[in-house]
Amino acid sequence: MNNNIFPCLWFDKTGNEAARFYTETFGGKITVDTPVVINFELFGQKMMILNAGPQFEKNASVSFMVLCETEAEVDQYWKPLSEGGIVLMELGEYPWSKKYGWVRDRYGVTWQVYLGEKQDEQKILPTLMFIHENNGKAMKAMELYTKIFPNSSIGKVLKYGDGIGDKTHEIPENVQHAHFEIDGYNFLCMDNSYDHKFDFNEGISIVVMTDNQEETDHLWNSLIADGGRASMCGWLKDQFGLSWQIVPKKLIELMNDSDPIKGQKVMQAMSTMQKIIIKDLENAYHN
Q: What residue stretch is flagged as signal peptide (predicted)?
């Protein structure tokens, strides 16, 4: 499992409270606890929260599949996640699982709690839903991501034509359920034909920590190509509208310097950038 890739959840003020809730629910730990940035681990997997304001709302276009090995474990997570939340699919038996439920928790994060076999040590898998103009593009997205990132592969792909459960609204060649891996980090994805009132946005983004400028340039340029869009401070949207943060590890190192004035200079330099340029950060640090 690669902890240089992890999801970031956008919150408005309640991020610290939510991090405590998730670590209590799943049995994890908070590793960074500041008013704006909270890092925490669940089952050894890194997740991040930004208390960044009301601009973006999390939605089910990116949900989190929790792979459970017993029915008791499903019940253990389902109870707190559903309290004060909105149940999207009732907990019960389905053609794909003896016990499964889909819920939007009280903080707006969407979880699929699933009884089934875990393939490796990664227990929580971000699940991407390709809807509206992206419907039918799940396969294209997997091919793109696995081409861009090293040590990547597409796993099992189930199409609606071969699938199980209700297929009445879906196109047979579209992806009902698929697994892919980018640089050792696992995702799931699906196409969906329903006219949901949401789509990919900055409410949930994927952070990639890079080792050097070469890796930063490669990921940034590749993800932004063919219709993607640059934002500020290492943020971008790819051609499907999924948000990524491409963040050199050097940025974190310089920002966390024991001299707070140097850290502040680095922050100010970073805030003017789209793609993050390590050399310019180092210049700000030394000047």
A: none
